[in-house]
Design goal:
binds 2-phosphoglyceric acid, seven-stranded mixed sheet, 21 helices, about 35% helix, Alkaline Phosphatase, subunit A, manganese ion binding, nine-stranded mixed sheet, metal-binding, phosphoglycerate mutase activity, single chain, binds manganese (II) ion, alpha/beta, 2,3-bisphosphoglycerate-independent phosphoglycerate mutase, EC 5.4.2.12, 2,3-Bisphosphoglycerate-independent phosphoglycerate mutase, substrate-binding domain
Length: about 575
């Protein structure tokens, strides 16, 4: 990775009088005009509540949000782009997500992201020329069937963590390389795609395998499970998720089925599982698991995004691993689709080089000796640290960076939609009064984590809980001389029902019920700068930036803090009506 030289910020006006700037990320709280998309036809649908937001499944607009409403009515309110090319994704059909959103927020620029980089590496063929491919796939032992190549990852075209086309390209590449035996360990999605879409992808995979399998090429599914229950934990929230995956994928331990389709269909019949919650399973052939991982096998984790790939990567490669008993730890040739953590160099081998996100806001502020604060609950803690800092888990300067994690609950979040919003507000407000930082950022997980459950009523409560916390912080901001920048990283709770792409009308299922949506949205996000009358009087939003996105926030923070904004960052969203130095006094 080429790293450019670091950069020294030039401060033209110090933050005096304990002035502070705090960015609040309301995860998954997209903004759409409350009055859009209503038709009389929709209003007449049976069984639906009469409010417009309720009818369209927009939990952000349906929630009681007096504080957010105050912010939205301010002259310093606008929306920002948070999806597609504005955050480095391949196309504007790609919804935003936390990784690309927080990368853009923390780095002040847009980098071509995993989804895009893997596409180009496949199209150019470079993915099959690198060291990792040679060392993991190009091995003699795979060509003479002594060992097996395992591919593990998320089976969908969600393009947040993975894409099914990437899996197909790897399988084709392995066949061309002369590999004879491939075993797949698939995680069902239902979170970046519709909640009950697994069968679509399974049928796609089945017909692909039918086509590609031959006398000399044997590729089959060996194990799997739903992504939120099996393998894809993050930020060490619940290692038992990874343990279940290890048992199914590596040891071949778990409930047996004759095929992937059979597993999903049987499990769904027994209990109304959404895809993401499916328990682990193992495919059995002639009484034996079809594809345990053995000594000297090769293994590729084909998700490109890091947060949920780190723990399984550690479980498969770490010598002194203590997070759960592995029972058996075969020595394998392991590669990730990407390197998931730039500080830990994890994993050592990777197929595609990740974006070289350098000179992040945290780094520049550390160079300028600015005290910083970051806080969230476990589910989003890495978002305001690791993602915010360009996919690095370490700190630039431990003395200047105060990071606080509030442990998340280990229950379905729709059962506690307030999550840890109150605790995050408590700690943040305390740090505001203590003047422990100059520039901080926090994340409220609610709109996103509850949005993913598909539970509309709970999502409405989740947004109200964020609003309550927001109101407390707004009050404290007035009393502690703190400027707030309230923003979101992408939409989610703003569309709890599937909408027709063109007409934006709710799609109904065969029973006349709205089709639930669990994934993120393409919505823009709110952005407000809040605090003093002085600010409102002397600062305005530039009017010539209709396409501004999340990457414009970093410069805006620096601008408000009295720094010159670096020319390699996207420009600030604001302008000062008279001399900046005087206004920021
Ligand atoms: O839960 C996750 O992993 C993603 C969705 O796949 O959500 P977010 O980007 O908000 O973290
Ligand atoms: Mn998010
Ligand atoms: Mn999400």
């Amino acid at each position: 990775m080429t790293q450019l030289k670091s950069f020294q910020l030039n401060r033209i006006s110090p933050l005096s009088g304990n002035k502070k700037i705090l960015t609040i990320v309301m995860d998954g709280v997209g903004y759409t005009n409350p009055n859009a998309n209503i038709t009389s036809e929709l209003k007449n649908q049976k069984g639906l509540l009469p409010s417009e937001a309720f009818i369209t499944g927009n939990a952000v607009n349906a929630a009681y949000t007096p504080n957010l409403d105050t912010l939205i009515s301010s002259s310093l309110f606008r929306t920002l782009k948070a999806h597609g090319t504005a955050v480095g994704l391949p196309s504007d059909d790609d919804m935003g997500n936390s990784e690309v959103g927080h990368n853009a927020l923390g780095a002040g620029r847009v980098f071509a992201q995993g989804a895009k980089l893997v596409n180009s590496a496949i199209h150019s063929g470079k993915i099959f020329e690198g060291i990792a491919w040679k060392q993991v796939v190009g091995r003699e032992e795979l060509k003479n069937k002594k060992n097996t190549l395992h591919l593990c990852g998320l089976l969908s075209d969600g393009n947040v963590h993975s894409h099914i086309d990437h899996l197909f390209a790897l399988i084709k590449g392995a066949k061309s390389e002369g590999v004879q035996k491939v075993r797949l360990h698939v995680l069902l999605d239902g979170r970046d795609v519709g909640p009950l879409t697994a069968t679509e992808y399974i049928l796609k995979l089945d017909s692909f395998l039918k086509e590609i399998n031959s006398n000399h090429f044997d590729c089959k599914v060996a194990s799997g499970g739903g992504r939120t229950f099996v393998t894809m934990d993050r930020y060490e929230s619940d290692w038992s998720i990874v343990e279940r995956g290890y048992q199914a994928h590596i040891l071949g331990e778990g409930r047996g089925f004759s095929s992937l389709l059979n597993a999903v269909e049987t499990l769904r019949q027994e209990k109304n599982y959404y895809d993401q919650d499916l328990p682990p399973f193992v495919i059995i052939d002639q009484g034996k698991p079809l594809g345990t991982v053995e000594e000297n096998d090769s293994f590729i984790f084909f998700n490109f995004r890091g947060d949920r790939a780190i723990e399984i990567s550690r479980a498969l490669t770490e010598q002194n691993f203590k997070s759960f008993p592995r029972k058996r730890f075969p020595k394998i040739y392991y590669a990730g689709m990407m390197q998931y953590d730039g500080d830990l160099k994890l994993p050592e081998l990777f197929l595609v080089t990740p974006p070289a996100i350098d000179r992040t806001l945290t780094e520049l502020l550390c160079n300028a000796s600015v005290k910083q604060f970051a806080c969230s609950e476990t589910q989003k803690f890495g978002h305001v640290t690791y993602f915010w800092n360009g996919n690095r888990s370490g700190k630039f300067n431990a003395e200047l960076e105060n990071y606080i994690e509030i442990p998340s609950d280990l229950i379905p979040f729709q059962e506690r939609p307030w999550m840890k919003s109150a605790e995050i507000a408590d700690i943040t407000i305390k740090n505001m009064y203590d003047n422990s930082f100059e520039i901080g950022r926090i994340n409220f997980a609610n709109g996103d984590m509850v949005g993913h459950s598909g539970d509309f009523a709970a999502a409405v409560l989740s947004v109200a809980a964020v609003d309550l916390a927001l109101g407390r912080i707004m009050k404290a901001a007035k009393e502690t001389n703190t400027i707030l920048i309230v923003v979101a990283d992408h939409g989610n709770a703003d569309e709890m029902y599937e909408l027709d792409k063109k007409t934006k009308k709710v799609i109904f299922d065969d029973n006349g019920k709205p089709k639930l949506k669990t994934s993120h949205t393409l919505a823009p996000v709110p952005c407000v700068i809040y605090n003093t009358e002085i600010l409102e009087k002397n600062v305005s939003l530039k009017t010539d930036m209709p396409n501004a996105g999340l990457a414009n926030i970093a410069s805006t923070i620096l601008d408000l803090a009295g720094f010159n904004t670096p020319d390699f960052y996207e420009p600030s969203l604001i302008e000062f009506n008279s001399e900046k130095k005087k206004i920021l006094k």
